[in-house]
């Protein structure tokens, strides 16, 4: 019971932080723009939704590894399955 409650709090915390970043305007959405940001070393963290295709996910992880940028796998679909990749 405690683990489930903690997991729910963690998801709520991540969702709140994502909302805060979205309000700040310092983010990039979409596969191509995320790759451009990685090539230009402008990203700090990449959040990949769980509905991202495996090939794209592995390509983004590869570029992130080269640029030494963190990657987080988000369990949600980031609203209407539109936003697959998120950099801030």
TrEMBL record:
Domain spans labelled Ribosomal protein eL8/eL30/eS12/Gadd45: 13-76
Domain of life: Eukaryota
A GO CC term attached to the entry: ribonucleoprotein complex
Pfam family membership, one: Ribosomal_L7Ae
GO molecular function (one): RNA binding
Gene3D superfamilies per UniProt: 3.30.1330.30
Keywords in alphabetical order: Ribonucleoprotein, Ribosomal protein
InterPro entries: Ribosomal_eL30-like, Ribosomal_eL30-like_sf, Ribosomal_eL30_CS, Ribosomal_eL8/eL30/eS12/Gad45
Family designation: Belongs to the eukaryotic ribosomal protein eL30 family.
Name the UniProt record assigns to this protein: Ribosomal protein eL8/eL30/eS12/Gadd45 domain-containing protein
